[in-house]
Amino acid sequence: MKSGxxxxxxxxxxxxxxxxxxxxxxxxxxxxxxxFKGIYEAVEHIRxxxxxxxxxxxxxxxxxxxxxxxxxxxxxxxxxxxxxxxxAMRAVLRNSVAVIGLxxxxxxxxxxxxxxxxxxxxxxxxxxxxxxxxxxxxxxxLISRHDLSxxxxxxxxxxxxxxxxxxxxxxxxxxxxxGLSPENHAVKLxxxxxxxxSMEESP
Length: 203
Fold this sequence. Notes:
This protein has a single domain (3-201), classed as Rossmann fold, CATH 3.40.50.2000. Helices cover 47% and strands 14% of the residues. It has nine helices and six strands; from the N terminus they run H-E-H-E-H-E-H-E-H-E-H-E-H-H-H. It has helices spanning 11-17, 39-46, 61-73, 86-94, 111-117, 130-133, 148-157, 161-177, 182-201, and strands at residues 26-32, 52-58, 78-81, 98-101, 122-125, 141-143.
């Protein structure tokens, strides 16, 4: 089975194929394994939460194995998924408790937007560009990098049905307000195309 076959494969079968329990018992982080992306920090923050971690991206086989081994040492189950197409990635995100991120120096993170677009809570470090899209406690959480108790609380909040629903609705509103909805992207693209055509037609 290839990731692209998600369209014709029941979700639980696809997730089982990837080694993921389809019960909303995991968090997702997106990015390559590097200290700048904070992947190891994410593992440490999940410790004792009872949740697993799915890393979309990862690194080479040695880096992936080292990360998985590190997780086992502190009681965190880790799945590293590489080369997922967009449909497969959305399926993995949609089944998660939340999408988390502890990247350093992120100018404008797209991952929170991707999460909010499908109704999944974004829980990110209160730094950099994440503050442009997430409003703490309204459409997700922004948390100090070193406040482990707050991270634990956020994971619990993301599993609360009422809070999750509220964050989801607010997230969609936030995307629309920032002009990041697919409809707005289409309008902007058409505007650019019209502008280019006008320039070509000018004498």
